[in-house]
Write a structure and sequence with these properties.
CATH superfamily of the largest domain: Vaccinia Virus protein VP39
Structural class: alpha/beta
CATH topology of the largest domain: Rossmann fold
Bound molecules: S-adenosylmethionine
CATH class of the largest domain: Alpha Beta
Strand order of the largest sheet: 3-2-1-4-5-7-6
Number of domains: 2
Number of strands: 7
Oligomer: single chain
């Protein structure tokens, strides 16, 4: 298997996701194919569709999975189009769907992607480098208020306004070409925690550029519709904004009733679609974090598709 990106919590992914050895699985974020590889190993008569928005990832996954012959297909797509992508590959129901969110170490470490504040590169940040506006485009067309909103909402950064002002001032001076320039503009506001602030601002811009939170909401909805009863959805999130969306989505799907508490009986008729499997959040072991420090923020949640009329 290829190295470069160490897949996170692989044993846990297999434990929660692989409900049948002959199942059909969709890896919505196949990356270098690490998780896909483990799924296929543990489902020896199963099949897998691997999706990624990054064409370079698909190329790497093809090498990682080559030993599995006809048992897998790979396609470049955004998981916000999960239903249509699955249909195009002849899948109308499946047994397990994995989302390992965000970006891979290979994407982070490639300066040309502009994802790291530690590398000098273009202010790009697109996970699909073939389409859509870059982070530089977003900054170029934003007013201070708008940019501050992005930094506050997607970076959970309290000092969003002074940071946005400093970035826009650098832009106006014509000094905002590279990720180093961006980091310099952020640090000019003299944040107390330099690394944390840089991480939050880069996260915010990346989420905005890739419309990550809307894609996640939409991908989860489509995943539930694709799962057959007993099938599982497993999500690994790396920051609280994503994890909150997953948690709330699972809770709403398990308890969709919107009737006032005083009503003796449900009148809204909304049926549960999922049963939460991981009542307690699953995190990497200390040994895994020691081996792979980038795993430290990972949080895994799993839910199981209910049959019609079934109660959680
Ligand atoms: C953490 S990495 C996954 C690593 C993978 N599990 C492995 O074992 O190599 C996340 C991957 O998801 C992809 N990705 C992020 N958002 C996506 C989206 N909305 N649709 C499809 N792929 C996406 C990224 O391009 C990246 O390759």
């Amino acid at each position: 298997m290829q190295s470069g990106h160490l897949p996170v919590m692989t044993a846990e992914v297999v434990e929660y996701l692989v409900v049948r050895t002959d199942g059909i699985y969709i890896d919505c974020t196949t990356g270098s194919g690490g998780h896909s590889h483990r799924i296929l190993l543990n489902a020896p008569s199963g099949r897998l569709l691997g999706i990624d928005v990054d064409p370079a990832a698909i190329k790497r996954a093809r090498e990682t999975l080559s030993e599995f012959g006809e048992r897998y297909e790979l396609t470049m797509a955004n998981f916000s189009e999960l239903a249509a992508t699955a249909r195009d590959h002849g899948i109308d129901q499946c047994d397990g769907i994995l989302f390992d969110l965000g970006f891979s170490s290979l994407q982070l470490d490639d300066p040309s992607r502009g994802l790291s504040f530690q590398e000098e590169g273009p202010i790009d940040m697109r996970l699909d480098p073939t389409s859509g506006p870059t982070a530089h485009d977003v900054i170029s067309r934003s007013e201070e208020r708008e940019l501050a909103g992005i930094i506050r909402d997607f970076g959970e950064e309290k000092r969003a306004h002074p940071i946005a002002r400093s970035i826009i001032a650098a832009r106006e001076r014509g000094q905002l070409d590279t990720t180093r320039d961006l980091a310099k503009a952020v640090l000019a506001t003299k944040p107390q925690h330099r690394q944390k602030t840089l991480a939050r601002v880069f996260q915010a811009l990346r989420i905005a550029v890739n419309d990550e939170l809307s894609s996640l909401r939409s991908g989860l909805e489509q995943a539930v519709a694709l799962l057959r009863p007993g099938g599982r959805v497993v999500v690994i999130a790396y920051h609280s904004l994503e994890d909150r969306i997953v948690k709330q989505f699972f809770v709403r799907s398990e308890r969709p009733c919107v009737c006032p508490k005083e009503l003796p009986k449900c009148a809204c008729g909304r049926e549960p679609t999922l049963r939460i499997v991981t009542r307690r959040i699953v995190t990497p072991t200390d040994a895994e974090i020691a081996r792979n420090p980038r795993a430290r923020s990972a949080k895994l949640r799993t839910a199981e598709r209910l049959a019609e009329g079934e109660k959680p």
